[in-house]
Amino acid sequence: MALRFLVRWSVALAAIVLIVSGVAVAQTPRRGGVLRVGNLGEPPALDAHWTTASITETLTNHIYEGLYSLDATNRPIPMLAESHSVSRDGLTYTFKLRQAVKFHNGKEMTAEDVVPSLARWGKQSIYGKALFAQVADWRAVDRYTVEMRLKEKSAIVLISLAVPNNFGAIYPREIVEKFPPEVKVTEYVGTGPFKLVEWKPDQYIRMVRFDDYKPRNEKPNGYGGGKTPWLDEIRWIPVPEVATRVAQVETGELEFADDLNLDAYDRLKRTPNVHTIISRPYYWLVAVFNKKDGLMTNAKLRQAWQAAIDIEPIMKNVAGGHAEFYRMDSSLTPVEIAAWHTKLAGLPWNEHNREKARRLLKEAGYKSEPVRFMTTQEYKWMYDFALLTKQQLEDAGFTIDLQVVDWATLVKRRNNPKEYDVFTTGMGAFYDPTHHIYLTATWPGWTTDEDILKLQAELARETDPKKRMVLWEQQTRQFYEKVPVIRYGDLFGLRAMRTSVKGFNERTERIRFYNVWLDK
Amino acid sequence: MTAYLLRRALALVPVLVVVVTVTFLLIHLIPGDPVSVMLGPDATPAQIQATRQALGLDRPLHEQLLKFYGRILRGDLGQSYFLDRPVTQALLERAEPTLVLTCSALFVAIVIGVPSGIVAAAAPGSLWDRTLMLAALLGVCVPGFWLSLNFIYLFAVRLGWLPAAGYASILADPLAALRYMVLPAVSLGFSQSALIARISRSCMLEALAQDYVRTARAKGLPDATVTWVHAFRNALVPVVTVIGITTAILIGGAVVTEIVFNIPGLGRLIISAVLRRDYPVVQGVILLTATVYVLINLVVDILYVFIDPRIRYE
Questions:
Q1: Residue A118 has pLDDT above 70, yes or no
Q2: Would you list the DSSP string of chain B?
Q3: What is the average pLDDT score of chain A?
Q4: A182 touches B: beta carbon within 8 Å
């Protein structure tokens, strides 16, 4: 009796030990392996300062680093900086750099590299230019200290240095001197956990582990914290045909496929060894008005459009009928960017009130002139929401002239106020209120409303976060009154990965493969 | 014969001049410019202007065209805006996959098409004839794109016999190259085999109706000899013409196949170049393709001389 008891308990114990150790083994990262990632296409450049293209952002954040990065709540945390201090008057920022950080060519990163890198970034990048417009002086104090003196108090210093898109990557001084800001860099040396070894256009881009990379001591935190390159190699493979990308992750020819069509969701969910990921945020859909010239300079017409549309059925349709892939929200910043998400009631968003729309059209003096609405089929979701909008607006009394062009044409034409009245696009993540490009006078659409611009300028100067939030809520209310663009809902994206891929952070906007390992 | 060849070679020149000029004008006149695409949608007008100047895109059109002619005469097709390398290098890097794909697809098309046509002609109206011609009809009607995707789904995803997409160089790894080439070559070749099958059948029927065939049969020659040794060669001239046309079509059809199967050839290159407005690359690919078309026509004309001894050129 006692023996049987003993045997049973020993077996149970042994089973528990095996299970736990099996789990532990599965969760222990291991070095090695080649990760093959399928993405949309070729990056126009691998110079982080040079372009806002999202594929460039993803790739360059593996080979370069900036002074700051974003944590899991999308707030700035130090990366190449060790710490910073701000003078009492708020005008001088002193950054201490981490020491013994190596570039891929073996050279140590020092202030001598940081100052010219960020100066170049300040001339070419949209975030760099916005920050450096407020900078009076930028210099090295000693080998590991740099100092930024501002013309006036600024709220955007750290966040600008932390934003991952078009970011302040630190290059070696020699490379900065070789490539002026308008010319893209074609030698790729950074401090990141991976280094570029081969780029065969239309075939692959190969990055291998940088063996001398020194991760920060902290745990991984959003885009930042400790970044450990477990993989031997990341191979980025451009697969322009989305059906092929899906097929290749199903067969295992790719370990990861990004930017997939939502139609593939059901099929991928059923595929063994494949894990689907809903990427949030992805894009929030907007229709941008030409406020410089033409019909849409009339505010009442814009308000009529805003009043007429019924957003939920549009979002549902664009999301292929899947509720998981869209979210209705009036906040100008998505939920994931916690610091600036607003929950305001009583906004004229999604009123779907045809009577109000018709009334506004009458007040606007609208005589059924065709509204030139530009969209593209290259992003299916843009085309879909344009078509549905056209339908809804025509029911409310608008006459819409839908013009379908390719993306390159759309990007060119939207710079010319004579060529369109409205165009479709998606907004990605803006990590700070001052980064919302559709609230500026220079971005296509040309928002020149004085009240909006005044509030944006105040937001750039006010450093108290609570006061900034009050201003931002004010700006949000103003946005819905002046209607510079129409905000639809949030659309999410689809990614897929083999179950052998471990450690992937599913909560960031764009993909990162440091801290990822292969369990094979 | 030599004089004929020389004349044909010289005739190439005006054709190519027209092709180059028209391409240049067309692509520069469509809206959209490479700089906006390269710098990203948020670039300021000042940045765009600076980069356009750096690339020479702000010069007047006729000046750019003349510069282009000058460079071509020196064998320089210019620099790709996107790929940071000379166009000639980009073309050379992409030529092998397209060449391998086109030749494999042509091989498949001929191997399926010619025997089908001949077998069908040998027994007109029979079940064989009707089945083969039905298959040929399907080949003409079914879109290559659809066929490719279904092949991927069946043979790669469901059965796992072959890879879904990709490319390996024949020089580096012939076995892998073969595995990657099967689905693309068969889906591209099948679509083209239809025309070859139907033409082969018509030509064979015509040849088999000739008097000499009746004589051959009367002499007691076996059917196979009559068909393959006597009638076939006489039917060949139009078939060779169609094969020549097919090769030309394949170069174009290869574009869709290359995109679906992710083959890094000239077809994919030109599509991405057009979408990105990478003018020098577009011009380079079109110039290359036009030259190849004209040369294929020349080769076909020469082949006639060997097939049909009655044909002579002066």
A1: yes
A2: -HHHHHHHHHHHHHHHHHHHHHHHHHHHHSS--HHHHHH-TT--HHHHHHHHHHHTTTS-HHHHHHHHHHHHHTT---B-TTTSSBHHHHHHHHHHHHHHHHHHHHHHHHHHHHHHHHHHHHSTTSHHHHHHHHHHHHHHHS-HHHHHHHHIIIIIIIS-SS-SS----TTT-HHHHHHHHHHHHHHHHHHHHHHHHHHHHHHHHHHHTSHHHHHHHHTT--HHHIIIIIIHHHHHHHHHHHHHHHHHHHHHHHHHHHHHTT--SHHHHHHHHHHHT-HHHHHHHHHHHHHHHHHHHHHHHHHHHHH-TT----
A3: 93
A4: yes
CB–CB contact B39 A44 (8 Å): yes
A378, two tokens: 């290259």
Q: At what angle are helices B2-29 and B61-73 packed, to 10 degrees?
A: 150
Instruction: Give the pLDDT of residue A16.
Output: 67
Q: State whether residue A60 sits within 8 Å of chain B by CB.
A: no
- Kindly report, residue by residue over B215-263, the tens digit of the pLDDT: 888 988 888 888 888 888 888 888 888 888 888 778 777 888 999 999 9
Direct distance between the N- and C-terminal alpha carbons of chain A, in angstroms, rounded to an integer: 44
Q: Is the ipTM of this complex over 0.90?
A: no
Q: Pick from A129, A166, A412: which is nearest to B36 by CB?
A: A412
* pLDDT for A8: 74
Hey, which residues 138-167 in chain A have their CB within 8 Å of chain B? 166
Question: 3-state DSSP: chain A helix, strand, coil percent, rounded to 5?
Answer: 35, 25, 40
Per-residue DSSP letter, A435: G
B131 touches B166 (CB < 8 A) = no
Contact at CB, A250 and B164, closer than 8 angstroms: yes
Amino acid at A251: T
The whole-number pLDDT of residue A7 equals 66
- B63 CB-near residues (< 8 Å, 6+ apart): none
Instruction: Report pLDDT for B209.
Output: 87
- Check CB contact under 8 Å for B156 and A247: yes
Nearest CB among A166, A244, A407 relative to B164 is that of: A244
- What is the token pair recorded at B93? 């890097």
How does pLDDT run across A452-472, given as a tens digit for each residue?
Answer: 999 999 999 999 999 999 999
Report whether pLDDT(B57) > 70: yes
pLDDT of residue A15: 62
Residue B292: count other Cβ atoms within 10 Å of its Cβ.
18
For B182, counting Cβ atoms within 10 Å of its Cβ (0-12 exposed, 13-18 middle, 19+ buried), the class is middle
What is the per-residue pLDDT for A374?
A: 96
Q: Is A407 on the interface with B (CB under 8 A)?
A: yes
